[in-house]
Amino acid sequence: MAYSNLRNFIETLEKHGELQRVSAEVDPALEIAELADRAVKSGGPALLFENPRGHTIPVLINAFASMRKMELALEVDDVQSLADRIAEYLEMKTPQGLVGKLKMLPKLAEIGNFFPREVRSGACQEVVKTENFSLYDYPVLTCWPQDAGPFITLPMVFSRNPISGKRNCGMYRLQVFDERTTGMHWQTHKQGAEHYRRLASEGRETRMDVAVAIGADPATVFSAILPLPPDLDEMLFAGFMRNKPVEMVKCKTVDLEVPANAEIVLEGRVTLGELRTEGPFGDHTGYYSLADEYPVFHVECITQRKNPIYATTIVGKPPMEDYYMGKTIERVFLPLLRLQLPEIVDMAMPPEGVFHNLMLVSIRKSYPGHARKVMSAIWGLGQAMFTKCIVVVDHDVDVQNYSETAFRALNNIDPERDLQFTLGPIDSLDHSSRLADYGSKVGIDATKKWPQEGFRRPWPDLIEMDEAVKARVDPIWEQLGIERAD
Ligand SMILES: Cc1cc2nc3c(=O)[nH]c(=O)nc-3n(C[C@H](O)[C@H](O)[C@H](O)COP(=O)(O)O)c2cc1C
What we know:
Elements: H1 6-15, E1 19-22, H2 31-41, E2 46-49, E3 59-61, H3 67-74, H4 79-90, H5 97-112, E4 117-119, E5 127-129, E6 151-152, E7 155-160, E8 167-170, E9 174-175, E10 181-183, H6 191-202, E11 207-214, H7 218-223, H8 234-242, E12 247-250, E13 257-259, E14 264-278, E15 281-282, E16 288-289, E17 292-304, E18 310-311, H9 321-340, E19 344-348, E20 359-363, H10 370-379, E21 389-394, H11 402-412, H12 415-418, E22 419-425, E23 438-445, H13 467-480
Parallel strand pairs: 1-2, 3-18, 4-12, 20-21, 21-23
Antiparallel strand pairs: 2-3, 5-17, 6-9, 7-8, 7-11, 10-17, 11-14, 12-13, 14-17, 15-16, 19-20, 22-23
The structure holds flavin mononucleotide.
Flavin mononucleotide is lined by residues 153-154, 168, 170-173, 185-187, 190-192, 224-227, 313, 315, 322, 325, 383.
């Protein structure tokens, strides 16, 4: 059964020993962040702060902060099973004959279950505040000492493409500037920013409707960070993940819909052309992202449950909660990546690479220059374009084993020959690139080099013991008892 809201998820986390309630009074300024950081780094539970200092609204943090919690969030035993489900749909072929068509009906009927459904009312509108409200009524965290202020860090930001009318949902942090205004940190490559540019270039409107939902059933929250193609509705993908449609309710004051089961919804407008300094903010790269000019969100109405829970996260030096969310995306999106690039056997984004800095890819190499083709394709694929360093290895390297990958890659490269540099778009959070959003990337071809690639020397085999010898030695090894328990 799909979770119907955030509360169901909290109950499940608690039942599985994955949530700890904190009744002690703790400050939303820095203290909650420090506790959450220690909790995630020690493999601890999600935390529900029942008494954030100065507030009556509880704070939920680290609800996605391990693979186990991700499994509970997506109601699977292993996130791989979600990837397998995607692969099953992708492999659906035109059925042969009547029996084939009949067999396919249940699968097709299932698809109907994924589309979001509009409902007339929702718990997220139990209370509607158009006057006398303040963002300071909510326990928004200040995460790190040099942060410019409190930031809403786990928001689902809804906007509409003014050309196609299609909805987008992205997770973009919001710096609270005052009681009714925040920053709108949609980076230039993201869909919210594209909607903003399109609307501005049309010249018909002066403001853009935006709705921000905070806290909902976990699949819906998670869907906000998925790197889906433009105009593919995250709510449809959320429906697929939870096997149940996301119920959407019309906002009270803007022309958008939000998940009916959300905890808190900020409705308002972004004035086209208005920019304000946003940041610095202790970011998921482990560094502070620099202050920069971003649009401003004017909150004009807040709707919420009677007793809402404020869901949030903190990012910083990896691994943190977002690493586990990203690792899940890596697994779930592999079948989609393989649709374009079937030669890819596996890929991994180690935590130290903070997603955009490092991707390890194993391929079944079939022709000269194949590794470079794969790099170029990855740099041309949605948000994978940001990847600063791509390491391509042969199919027999386990890229989930970072030590093995480093050992194989470092042995296999002639640096001058095997490094491919390119210039292009760079993640807005990268502080090292020569210009904001623009810089260089490197691909490392660590595959075995072929004569057709100009390699004329013999390529040695990896050292492996004969299987027969290993089998003969197994019992002797047991008898000797040399192996230490740890
Ligand atoms: C906790 C968290 C915070 C994020 N904050 C931002 C942000 O402030 N700005 C941004 O552009 N992307 C941010 N992202 C990444 C986007 O949510 C992600 O790139 C998403 O795919 C964007 O959606 P879109 O393609 O619909 O624009 C964040 C991701 C996570 C997990």
